[in-house]
Design brief:
The protein is α+β, with helices and mostly antiparallel strands. It has 2 domains: 38 residues, no CATH class; 157 residues, no CATH class. Helices cover 19% and strands 30% of the residues. The chain has 3 helices and 9 strands. Strands 2-1-3 form a 3-stranded antiparallel beta sheet, with no helix packed on it. It has a 3-stranded antiparallel beta sheet with strand order 5-4-6. A 3-stranded antiparallel beta sheet has the order 8-7-9, with no helix packed on it. Helix 1 runs antiparallel to helix 2. The relative contact order is 0.18. The structure holds zinc ion (ZN) (3 copies). One zinc ion (ZN) binds next to loops.
Length: 198
């Protein structure tokens, strides 16, 4: 029940460190944010082989540019979909049903899929935050690769393995992705601020 977890987290946060300082106005604002934020999908992960973002919620792990399936490591991202695009949140990010990577579907050219040809979109239309400060439950340095069109993590010296050859090459926005923390216990973490929560 992700929505219920969100609600409890925000209510606890509101009581814990907003309520004491500012009372009900901010508390009410947080509640509004929670209600508006009803569509997110969990199980988006970093692949430690290619450094791209892929969907790990199926038994099969797609196709990694390094060969075989992707291998998840680290944070479990919790991504918004089917919500309006804003100046700091870009739509048209899609799941590729061939390689399972997250790719940008806003161009006529669909990039380079490790399975062959371009990526093929399926399912939700993800709307991803960019160029905002990362809160305690968000990670930045996620970028669009202008060679394969996948989302990859650009925070390391090594740029992973691109389906188009060599490493990924970052272009455009600096994406800030929300991950699932320990929502019940880590109330000291700063929750996302409204621009990043939509
Ligand atoms: Zn991979
Ligand atoms: Zn693909
Ligand atoms: Zn690439």
């Amino acid at each position: 029940m992700p929505n219920e977890l969100f609600r409890r987290h925000f209510l606890k946060a509101g009581v814990g460190f907003i309520g004491a300082a500012a009372g009900k106005v901010l508390f009410t604002d947080f509640s509004t944010v929670v209600l508006a934020q009803s569509t997110r999908q969990l199980e988006w992960r970093y692949c430690r082989k290619c450094q791209a973002l892929f969907y790990d919620g199926y038994g099969k792990k797609g196709r990694c540019p390094t060969g075989n399936g992707h291998v998840a490591q680290g944070l479990n991202f919790f991504l918004a979909y089917d919500t309006p695009e804003t100046p700091t949140a870009q739509a048209a990010w899609r799941f590729c049903n061939k390689c399972y990577m997250m790719f940008y579907d806003g161009y006529p050219n669909k990039g380079v899929c490790p399975v062959g040809g371009g990526h093929v979109a399926q399912g939700y239309n993800f709307v991803l935050s960019h160029d905002i400060p990362a809160s305690g439950l968000e990670q930045n340095a996620w970028r669009f690769c202008n060679k394969c069109h996948a989302m990859f993590y650009d925070g390391y010296e090594n740029k992973g393995t691109c389906s188009a050859g060599g490493g990924h090459v970052a272009a455009g926005y600096n994406f800030v992705l929300r991950f699932k923390g320990n929502l019940e216990d880590d109330v000291q973490l700063v929750p996302c601020s409204p621009p990043s929560c939509y």
